[in-house]
């Protein structure tokens, strides 16, 4: 009887730790900012760049439509495409740390986490002159050590309200439809202008979908706001 109770408790604890590690918006290991106030505002974010093809196109669309966004950059991609990273910074968009090599963090210890987060921080600052204020874990995977690794940089941990699996390249119209269907007040939208594992990965569908996404969100009475406003004390 006691052994059975212990087994049930252990299974419950393991399940809770798994949930904390892989569910991207949970706060089990520390606070995660995944949504804005429940107003008719939306916050546009892009992961896994910079990408020499998609990122400039995304920046062009955002400038044309006067939409702010946040870009969570992979350090190795910044090092490979510094001019593109600088273009993001020069456009005035919020820049975040997305690790040096886009490795999944939930199985890493403190030393490797420090190298991934610190390396990306140094690379981004060195190439763009911008000090990141936010961090987003690849795939949202975390463990209790991640918060300790970001603390020296004063980062806020960012999640997202929903993603639309644009990385699977389902077609620009389908990406647009998924955003339209899931949109809710205060949503932090997750899209990708790069591929975390392939610096030349194809993200043309996301760029192609973006003008329609912006038009749809606005047609539903929403405005795009800067993620920076959620960082104010």
Describe this structure in words.
The protein is α/β, with parallel strands linked by helices. Helix content is 43%, strand content 13%. The chain contains eight helices and eight strands. Strands 1, 2, 3, 4, 5, 6, 7 and 8 form an eight-stranded parallel beta sheet that branches. It is globular, with a radius of gyration of 18 Å. It starts with a helix and ends in a 9-residue tail after the last strand. The relative contact order is 0.20.
Q: Percent range for helical residues?
A: 40-55%
Number of strands: 8
Poorly predicted parts:
3-20
Helix and strand pattern:
HEHEHHEHEHEEHEHE
**How would a textbook summarize the main sheet?**
8 strands, parallel
- Rg, Cα atoms, Å: 18 Å
Assign the structural class, choosing from mainly alpha, mainly beta, alpha/beta, alpha+beta, or little secondary structure: alpha/beta
User: What is the distance, rounded to the nearest whole angstrom, between the alpha carbons of the first and last residues?
Assistant: 50 Å
Strand content: 5-15%
Give the helix tally.
8
Average pLDDT, all residues: 91
Q: How would the global form be characterised?
A: globular
């Amino acid at each position: 009887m006691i052994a059975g109770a212990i087994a049930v408790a252990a299974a419950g604890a393991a399940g809770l730790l798994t949930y904390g590690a892989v569910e991207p918006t949970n706060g089990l290991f520390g606070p995660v900012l995944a949504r804005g106030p429940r107003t008719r505002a939306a916050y546009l974010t892009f992961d896994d760049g910079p990408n020499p093809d998609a990122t400039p196109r995304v920046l062009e669309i955002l400038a044309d439509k006067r939409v702010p966004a946040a870009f969570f950059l992979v350090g190795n991609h910044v090092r490979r495409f510094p001019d593109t990273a600088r273009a993001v910074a020069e456009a005035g968009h919020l820049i975040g740390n997305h690790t040096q090599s886009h490795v999944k963090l939930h199985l890493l210890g403190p030393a490797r986490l420090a190298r991934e987060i610190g390396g990306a921080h140094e690379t981004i600052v060195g190439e763009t002159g911008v000090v990141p204020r936010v961090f987003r874990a690849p795939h949202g995977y975390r463990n209790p050590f991640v918060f300790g690794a970001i603390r020296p940089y004063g980062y806020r941990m960012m999640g997202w309200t929903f993603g639309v699996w644009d990385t699977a390249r389902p077609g620009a119209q389908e990406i647009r439809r998924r955003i339209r269907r899931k949109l809710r007040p205060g949503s932090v939208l997750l899209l990708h202008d790069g591929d975390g594992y392939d610096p030349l990965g194809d993200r043309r569908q996301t760029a192609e979908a973006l003008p329609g996404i912006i038009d749809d969100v606005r047609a539903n009475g929403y405005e795009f706001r800067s993620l920076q406003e959620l960082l104010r004390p």
